[in-house]
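Chapter summary example.
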Amino acid sequence: MITDPPLLKIRSAFPRPSAEIVKQLSGAMTGHLVDAMGGSGALDWRIKPLAGKPQAFCGVAVTCDCGPSDNLALFGGLDVVKPGDVLMAATGGYKAAAVTGDLLAGMAKNSGAAALVTDGVVRDVAGLLDVGLPVYCAGVSANSPARNGPGTVGLPVMIGGVSVSPGDIVVGDGDGVVVVPLADADQVLQKLAGVRSAEAALEAKVKAGLRIPDFVAAILSSNRVQRLD
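The structure predicted for these 229 residues follows.
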């Protein structure tokens, strides 16, 4: 006898970073994190702060694979989320119906979520802003989703062109959202110090009047540049 497939598959006991690592990454600029990861890690540029009002956040990813026009998995995520976690709602980029509104976002905040990120769209903008939970999304639609599943919670998802696993560290600011893989977190932290130092040094030179940095000047004066006049 064939039985109906489950509406949700939920994994809650996934590996998590230490609180110290999350604390050290909190407040890091997303651009610095990307540089520390070799130039990648940011979600698609269309995933932006709701209403253009960025609220910086940093937390542990709780992944929810909702699929198109459904948010049962996001509700399932409320059963898994811990204080400081970030709900990551994957919709496959579906934009014809919202994956969440202000009420679900309010429940997420009540559950301790630090932010909600989706490659889909949301609704109830005024209410969402009142909730105060950082929301990063691909747009807004008044259309509502179903709660039928199927979906998953706590399994790897693809959001904004980036593979996100539960337990990864998610950082957001006015430049977008960056995912730091859990396995790379220690290495990223080590490189982050060097990125910050180099950025600060170059910024000081720019403020002092720098026109062309030395590394570019060296290229411009080399045989790697063909001058046509």
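To summarize the output: The first helix runs from residue 19 to 25.
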